[in-house]
Design a protein that fits this description.
The complex is a heterodimer of chains A (about 350) and B (about 120). By secondary structure, chain A is of the alpha+beta class. Chain A is built from twelve helices and 13 strands. The radius of gyration of chain B is 14 Å and the shape is globular. The chains are: A alpha+beta (about 350), B mainly alpha (about 120). The interface between A and B is medium-sized, with 17 and 23 residues.
Chain lengths: ~350, ~120
């Protein structure tokens, strides 16, 4: 076998489609086996434009005239599979011979893989988006249960270390005769009423720098100065307390249930922490909380009782009237006070 | 949570090869292949990727309604369904998926038989 014969056999057998183009007629003069397999044997058309209808023949001619290289892609079908080949046409021979070599690389698999990656990355993107949305919902829920700084700590370390807050103010509230209200009203109505009222309290509280810690049935508990320090925390809770009552009296005028709130205010140290492992909740406890609850128990309906600890922190904008000591239980020696907004108290005095 | 087959067998890296192999088989098969005669390649590949990923618990899932709607105008006979099931089994075997896991995949596929075949 001569070298030429071996060469030709090799050329025929390789997995790349090879053909020679007569640039004058744009017909193929030689086609190897792979090319024939893809585009039909000797019986098939030999015209370049017919084999590759999408080929820009003018652009090819221009490129070949300059002796350059022309590349393109072409699609065709074998059975039901879409094949893609990369065409590479190079001017060959000398100036008198107007021929070019056409090489076709099969890039079908690459195209298929590209499509698969597109499809997969779209799936992943959609999933990532969903996960992100779920994460935001979880975050929102957790932020309902704990302040942001506690949440950030929880996220980074998995726990929230208890923190002492030396000077904060606490507001507690409950409703007089709540058990009677429960007896005579539909539970669904009560829940909806409380929901309405607590939402209003939250809004008012937020306006004055207090944050609700929790509610438990008819008791509402908010604090100012946890976890972020508030300079005038006493004033915050006093202001909120006064407005809670104002809101309720207005609301009572147009609603069948006349809610009679009792409020207790106190200042002092508290501890803030996440409590529980499986069912965690951010809670605040300590002397100020205790004092505020005890103080509340002494408040008449629609009034605010203040412990001496908070009285000392408030200025003349709030009027303090000493409460007569209760006979039945021990009371702090410093006494308890009824708190009102100063102007309101003066108005009372005039009437 | 139990690891999905998708993760167990190496995630997308393996699944992509399974997808390609199944795609080759599908197109070459003269029973099932004709269903894809007029389907454009990217669409078919997309279909296959999601199909295999969902069977193996990857990041794709289809509701029954979705599957039903996608196939309702195709005349799929029990023979076609069985043939595809065989091809899935062969392909998974080629990639050394454990027989138990293959059964799980085929079970998930079988569970949807009624959605695809016109009764």
């Amino acid at each position: 076998m001569t070298i030429e014969a071996i060469n030709e056999q090799l050329l025929r057998a390789i997995g790349v489609g090879v053909a020679l183009i007569d640039l004058d007629t744009l017909e193929l003069s030689f086609r190897n086996d792979t090319f024939d397999e893809w585009f039909g044997g000797p019986d098939a058309s030999a015209r370049l434009g017919e084999i590759f209808p999408s080929l820009d023949l003018d652009a090819l001619a221009a490129e070949m005239a300059g002796g350059g290289k022309f590349t393109a892609e072409a699609n065709f079908k074998i059975k039901r599979r879409r094949m893609t080949v990369a065409l590479d046409i190079t001017r060959a021979g000398n100036a008198s011979e107007r021929i070019a070599v056409l090489v076709c690389q099969n890039i079908t698999r690459i195209k298929e893989l590209e499509s698969m990656i597109d499809s997969y990355s779209m799936m992943v993107e959609r999933n990532t988006h969903e996960i992100k949305r779920e994460k935001e919902q979880v975050e929102k829920l957790l932020l309902n249960m704990m302040p942001r700084s506690a949440y950030e700590e929880y996220k980074s370390f998995g726990v929230v270390a208890p923190r002492i807050f030396e000077s904060v103010s606490v507001l507690t509230l409950d409703f007089e005769n709540f058990d009677k209200v429960l007896e005579v009203n539909d539970p669904a109505v009560i829940v909806s009423e409380l929901n309405d009222i607590y939402t209003a309290f939250d809004r008012i509280g937020e306006q004055f720098g207090c944050e609700r810690v929790r509610t438990n049935g008819d008791s509402y508990f908010a604090v100012s100065g946890v976890p972020d320090p508030v300079l005038d925390h006493a004033e915050s809770v006093a202001n909120a307390a006064v407005r809670f009552l104002r809101y309720l009296s207005r609301r009572n005028e147009s609603h069948p249930i006349r809610w009679q709130a009792r409020l207790g205010l106190a200042s002092g140290p508290v501890v803030g922490s996440v409590v529980g492992v499986q069912k965690y909740i951010y809670d605040v406890f300590g002397p100020a909380v205790e004092k505020a609850s005890k103080t509340r128990a002494r408040a008449p309906g629609m009034a605010i009782a203040a412990d001496a600890s908070i009285r000392d922190l408030l200025d003349s904008r709030f009027a303090m009237t000493p409460l007569a000591p209760a006979k039945s239980r021990p009371e702090p020696q410093s006494g308890l006070f009824l708190l009102e907004e100063a102007s309101q108290s003066e108005a009372h005095g005039l009437s | 949570m139990e690891k999905s087959l998708f993760d167990k067998y190496g995630g997308f890296s393996t699944v992509s090869k399974i997808v390609m192999r199944l795609y080759d088989k599908l197109l070459d098969d003269d029973d099932v292949g004709p269903f894809f005669d007029d389907v454009d390649m990217p669409k078919l590949i997309d279909h296959q990727t999601k199909f295999v990923a969902s069977l193996m618990g990857g990041p794709a899932s289809f509701t029954d309604t979705h599957i039903q709607r996608a196939h309702h105008n195709l005349e799929i006979a029990p023979m076609h369904f069985d043939r595809l099931k065989e091809m899935i089994e062969e392909t998974l075997q080629e990639f050394s998926v454990e027989q138990d896991d293959i059964e799980t995949v085929l079970g998930a596929f079988e569970a949807r038989r009624d959605l695809l075949i016109d009764v």
